[in-house]
Amino acid sequence: MAPILSRRSVLLGSLSLLAAPHIARAQNYDDLLFDSPETPDEEMQDPGAGPDMEPGFERDPDLLPPPESPVDYPIPPVNLNKIPQEFRRQIVPFEDTEWPGTIIVDPRARHLYLALGGGEAMRFGVGVGRSGFEWSGEAEVGLKRKWPRWVPPIDMVSRDEKAAKWANGMPGGPENPLGARALYLYKFGQDTLYRIHGTNEPSSIGKNMSSGCIRMLNEDVAELYRRVPIGSRVIVLPAQQA
């Protein structure tokens, strides 16, 4: 039987998050290389030019927030034989400490839970932030996108030719590292710059790879997207207390 995420774990995590003075986010983009699979997990949605941008550069306001792809591409199924059993989608016992529809991420175990009520949750395997960029906090789903556009951080655009090609965003689609769906996490009405999203690299599930964000199999994030509305509560537990 799968282990039950304990009430103590959730409460301790929530208390530590309430004590945090601000939203944690990755501070050093020097480690975020454009050709690294971790890179696209962070976006900057500032429509103006940053201090290191080329003079006169501005985001296209029509592309912010990033729009959906006009094409809803089919999602090919993943060969689950290549995904360890513990990271496959499944219904597990779950203490009813949160309202049904709440998302709880346990980064140490690389699991995401969707509380269903009745002592159960749907559990998904995820890839989570690597050391130094692990995000924790309470937020809500503020925006949802199918086949989301990826917008690179503005300082990355100024120093990386590959990122500059997509200064106003890489169109959504099967080649986009954000995958088939994205849930944008907001706190106090502001974008945290962190996402729950798909991936075109299924082998990253169950690993500490992404820089600050939470990645899922495309078919799993599509199921989560279908089940959770805007405003759903999200709790990402601190890795050391998860």
Strand order of the largest sheet: 1-4-3-2-9-5-6-7-8
Shape category: globular
User: Which fold name corresponds to the CATH topology?
Assistant: L,D-transpeptidase catalytic domain-like
| Average pLDDT score | 78
Task: Please tally the helical runs, counting DSSP H or I stretches of 4 or more residues.
Answer: 4
CATH level-two architecture: Beta Barrel
Radius of gyration: 17 Å
Structural class by sheet pairing and helices: alpha+beta
Order of helices and strands: HEEEEEHHEEEHE
Poorly predicted runs of 5 or more residues: 14-53
Largest sheet: 9 strands, mixed
Number of strands: 9
Distance between the termini: 19 Å
Count of domain modules = 1
Describe the 3D structure.
The chain is an alpha+beta fold. It has one domain (7-236): L,D-transpeptidase catalytic domain-like, CATH 2.40.440.10. Helix content is 14%, strand content 21%. The protein contains four helices and nine strands, in the order αβββββααβββαβ. The protein has helices spanning 7-19, 154-159, 161-165, 218-227, and strands at residues 90-93, 103-106, 111-117, 120-125, 137-146, 181-187, 190-197, 214-215, 233-236. The protein has a nine-stranded mixed β-sheet. Strand 2 (103-106) and strand 3 (111-117) form a beta hairpin.
List keywords for this structure.
single chain, 242 residues, alpha+beta
How is the topology of this model organized?
Blueprint: H1 7-19, E1 90-93, E2 103-106, E3 111-117, E4 120-125, E5 137-146, H2 154-159, H3 161-165, E6 181-187, E7 190-197, E8 214-215, H4 218-227, E9 233-236
Parallel strand pairs: 2-9, 7-8
Antiparallel strand pairs: 1-4, 2-3, 3-4, 5-6, 5-9, 6-7
